[in-house]
């Protein structure tokens, strides 16, 4: 494996622009990751749904709990993380994980309606080239509207669950006028992509045994390239780029999106959020870190948010799986493991309280 390929694998989840242009498309027969089906309680319905967004058709799965006559369920929208994310979970390298499906089925078994969907250009969802940051926000808004129109859903009790980059999207969607009832941010960024990139290159190079001089040289190259992008030099880059360097080529593949993520600050987006918010962060996470959770909490506190809960889970990684050893980037490409029980219980208990549902 070449050095550049290793770098790409190491930073793949953060550099979503390397995949979001439509050049990479993850397919499956139904648009969802094919996994062994969990046995759901009697009365829980599984419905394949489609909804329009920005002249595209997006596809997803809606789980509806068993309801007494005349009752409506609280609902949770799962907004997936970076890269070619299917409705069932994050795709890292060639490994398709299933954390969203497991979370959705867990919540549906406890009385929640849950919607998860394939991101544009993945699975059964439509695609258009050169999508912008705002397009993914539009998609999430469209998913919320689908839930609001369902007669089985209580439109006043809709929560967002944003994972990774999806947490950034959730904070933009959860403006006060949208009347979102609650928001969960799991492994979500508290810094711009430019700052996250520095951390991830440092970590991945160190994990590969590279010297600090090599690390600094590569970071300087990223800075020069992003500076050229910000000046509008998108077609004729002065900086030579190895055609095998998927990380840097990924940044260039969708320059408008790259520039937006480089400068758009999650802390600015979260300032206006007033919905009860749970910040969930694993201490073994090598994609985001505890300081991201702390930055988000600090900004909400500064904005005088009155209902913020932070949970730092000791043995949980970016994929919300149990990690007993040292967290490594390489481990994220290994076969999918079940969601950590502490994640399931923390999210469920908090949502039951905030959406007024009996355990």
Q: Assign a percent range to the helix content.
A: 25-40%
Tally of alpha and pi helices: 11
The major β-sheet equals:
8 strands, mixed
CATH superfamily: Alpha/Beta hydrolase fold, catalytic domain
Structural class: alpha/beta
| Number of structural units classed as domains | 1
- Radius of gyration using CA atoms only: 20 Å
CATH topology: Rossmann fold
Distance between the termini: 49 Å
- Uncertain stretches of 5 or more adjacent residues: 1-37
Average pLDDT metric: 84
How do the strands of the widest beta sheet line up side by side? 1-2-6-3-7-8-9-10
- Per CATH, the architecture is 3-Layer(aba) Sandwich
Sketch the topology as an H/E string, one letter per element.
HEEEEEHEHEHEHHHHHEHEH
Specify the CATH class. Answer: Alpha Beta
Tell how many strands the DSSP assignment holds.
10
Strand residue percentage: 15-25%
Question: What does this entry look like structurally?
Answer:
By secondary structure, the protein is α/β, with parallel strands linked by helices. The chain has a single domain, classed as Alpha/Beta hydrolase fold, catalytic domain (Rossmann fold, 3-Layer(aba) Sandwich), CATH 3.40.50. 36% of the residues lie in helices and 17% in strands. The protein contains eleven helices and ten strands. The protein has helices at 3-11, 99-108, 133-149, 165-173, 193-207, 212-230, 246-253, 255-263, 266-270, 290-302, 341-354, and strands at residues 45-53, 56-64, 73-79, 91-92, 95-96, 113-117, 153-163, 182-186, 277-282, 308-313. An eight-stranded mixed beta sheet has the order 1-2-6-3-7-8-9-10, with helices on both faces. A hairpin with a 2-residue loop joins β4 (91-92) and β5 (95-96). The termini are far apart.
């Amino acid at each position: 494996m070449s050095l550049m390929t290793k770098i790409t694998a190491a930073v793949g989840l953060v550099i979503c622009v390397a995949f979001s242009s439509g050049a990479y498309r993850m397919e499956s027969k139904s648009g969802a990751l094919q996994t062994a089906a969990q046995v759901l309680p009697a009365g829980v319905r599984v419905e394949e749904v489609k909804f329009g967004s920005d002249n595209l058709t997006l596809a997803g799965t809606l789980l509806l709990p068993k309801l007494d006559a005349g009752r409506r369920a609280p609902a949770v929208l799962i907004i997936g993380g970076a890269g070619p994310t299917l409705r069932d979970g994050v795709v890292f390298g060639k490994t398709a994980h299933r954390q969203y499906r497991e979370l959705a089925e867990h919540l549906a078994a406890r009385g929640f309606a849950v919607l998860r969907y394939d991101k544009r250009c993945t699975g059964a969802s439509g695609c258009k080239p050169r999508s912008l940051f705002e397009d993914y926000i539009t998609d999430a808004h469209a998913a919320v509207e689908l839930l609001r129109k369902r007669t089985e859903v209580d439109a006043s009790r809709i929560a967002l669950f944003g994972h990774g980059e999806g947490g950034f999207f959730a904070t933009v969607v959860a403006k006060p006028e949208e009347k979102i009832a609650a928001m969960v941010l799991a492994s979500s960024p508290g810094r711009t992509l430019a700052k996250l990139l520095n951390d991830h290159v440092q970590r991945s190079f160190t994990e590969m045994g590279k010297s600090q001089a090599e690390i600094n040289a590569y970071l300087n190259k990223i800075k020069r390239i992003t500076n050229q992008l910000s000046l509008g030099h998108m077609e004729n880059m002065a900086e030579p780029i190895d055609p095998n360097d998927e990380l840097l080529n990924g940044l260039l593949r969708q320059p408008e999106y790259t520039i937006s993520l480089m400068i758009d600050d999650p802390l600015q987006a979260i300032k206006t959020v007033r919905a009860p918010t749970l910040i969930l962060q694993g201490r073994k996470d090598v994609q985001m870190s505890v300081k991201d959770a702390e930055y988000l909490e600090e900004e909400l506190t500064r904005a005088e948010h009155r209902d913020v809960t932070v949970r730092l889970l000791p043995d949980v990684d970016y994929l919300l799986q149990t990690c007993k050893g040292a967290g490594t980037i390489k481990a994220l490409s290994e076969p999918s493991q079940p969601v950590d029980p502490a994640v399931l219980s923390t999210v469920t208990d908090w949502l039951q309280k905030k959406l007024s549902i009996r355990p």
